[in-house]
Design a protein that fits this description.
- There is one protein chain.
- By secondary structure, this protein is mainly alpha-helical.
- It is built from 20 helices and 4 strands.
- The longest helix has 29 residues.
Length: 432
């Protein structure tokens, strides 16, 4: 197959299929690295206070860096190039952490600070684009293999994380010789992220306009029954010679040579056009602030911050706590615990649309915070429960099923909320 035929085939793949692949491959890498990293920090001699400080860097840095990078992406229109660069940098950066960075607190802390500043907004770009592509596909009534809702796309990350690579890495760290186990996550992580970087070039970041159906050319003006030969038609296209050139909705004048309605569709691609769509006289920054600073939205974002804080505590300390002598969990047990988190998460993502029809954002927030409280209290009782029951440390597994609510519902509701309030073309700036 020639280079040109490969490129032609790539443009025929729906962008949501690239998104499914990105979530699956990226979360394969994350599962092999992220949950086990605190255990490596402890092995390198960091205290648990220092481990908390290092892991706190990611949400703290992201709080500033994520909207800043989102603004850069929305202003320049270079979403795909930025997404690709960040994914590659993230893979290489954490690989270097395992092999080259001196294993002392100050070195690790400073290195992670600059690494997270560089790589912030990777997930934001993925979620923002996926949400937009899902809305566009739904408006066109496109039926895709695997579904076209955000939850149906996002669940591939849960499958990869919990059912496959999280438990696999837990088994590897348990049974591999120490010399191999000490380097395994830092070897496979950049491999998975290099593969996911290739998929970033297939994401479609073109802003979606509810008002015009964002180029849904179905029957309106292109030969269908509803066509009117004298009406300009908004059109768009997924195909592009340059992945960094955003395709924009455009109108075309009637062309007498075109059959049916007399219209010929010509996709217009221009980074300048994308910039014009995403900015106006008030600027991206001021429009974003106007949205997030309203009392209701600010209160919602504060609730999301509390959820993120609880998630950060769990991600940082749960495995360290399970490894404590009072519990004595193996790395295999930790890997299986990751698998249990995704049992309910996959179910929730699969039924996301149905759930959100019956549960409001406000009710979801209350439920998520309540379930987070239950999880933290259960973890606090683990030393007692592991001695009281014959299951030992494996008694943690039922609590992991709450992850479907505390993470899956949280992520789904949060993404939908941002998609709803974000000004057109500025989802990346608003999403954190």
């Amino acid at each position: 197959m020639t280079r040109f035929s490969i490129a032609a085939y790539a443009t025929q793949i729906h962008p949501l299929h690239y998104a499914k692949t990105w979530y699956f491959v990226s979360f394969a890498g994350y599962a092999c690295m992220t949950p086990y990293l605190p255990l490596f920090y402890e092995k390198w001699g960091l205290t648990r206070t220092e481990i908390g400080a290092v892991n706190a860097l990611k949400p703290l840095v992201s709080f500033v860096a994520t909207p800043a990078w989102g603004w850069v992406a929305d202003y320049t229109g270079k979403h795909n190039a930025l997404f690709f660069w960040k994914t590659v940098s993230q893979g290489l950066g954490y690989c270097a952490l395992g092999f080259f960075v001196p294993k002392h607190f100050t070195n690790v802390f400073v290195y992670i600070f600059f690494l997270e500043t560089t790589c912030a907004a990777t997930m934001t770009l993925a979620d923002a684009a996926t949400g937009t592509m899902c809305r566009r596909a739904s408006s066109k009534n496109e039926k895709l293999w695997g579904g076209n809702t955000y939850g149906e796309i996002r669940l591939w990350g849960a499958v990869s994380w919990g059912f496959l690579f999280g438990p696999a890495m837990g088994a590897a760290l348990t049974y591999l010789p120490a010399t191999l186990a000490n380097h395994a996550p830092f070897v496979v992580y950049p491999i998975f992220l290099a593969a996911s970087a290739a998929t970033t070039l297939g994401f479609d970041f073109t802003p979606f306009s509810e008002e015009f159906g964002d180029g849904d050319i179905g029957d309106a003006g292109l030969g269908g029954d509803g066509g009117d030969a004298g009406v300009d038609s908004p059109i768009t296209s997924y195909e592009s010679d340059d992945e960094d050139c955003a395709l924009t909705t455009a109108t075309v004048a009637p062309d007498p040579s075109a059959p049916g309605t007399g219209l010929k569709s010509k996709p217009v691609k221009s980074a300048e056009s994308a910039r014009a769509n995403s900015t106006n006289s008030r600027g991206v920054g001021s429009k974003t602030w106007a949205v997030v600073s309203t009392p209701t939205n600010a209160a919602t974002f504060f609730a999301f911050t509390l959820m993120s804080a609880s998630m950060a505590v769990t991600d940082t300390y749960l495995f360290l706590w399970m490894e404590d002598s009072s519990i004595g969990a193996s790395r295999l047990c930790m890997g299986v615990a990751l698998g249990f988190t995704c049992v309910s998460e996959v179910v929730l993502f699969k039924n996301e649309a149905r759930i959100k029809k019956h549960v409001s954002t406000e009710a979801s927030i209350v439920l998520i915070l309540f379930c987070y409280a239950l999880r933290q209290w259960f973890y606090a009782l683990l030393p007692w429960l592991s001695t009281l029951t014959p299951a030992g440390p494996w008694v943690v597994l039922p609590a992991q099923l709450l992850h479907g609510i505390t993470f899956g519902l949280f992520w789904s509701v949060g993404t939908a909320f941002v998609q709803k309030i974000a000004p057109n073309g500025q989802t990346s700036s608003v999403m954190e």
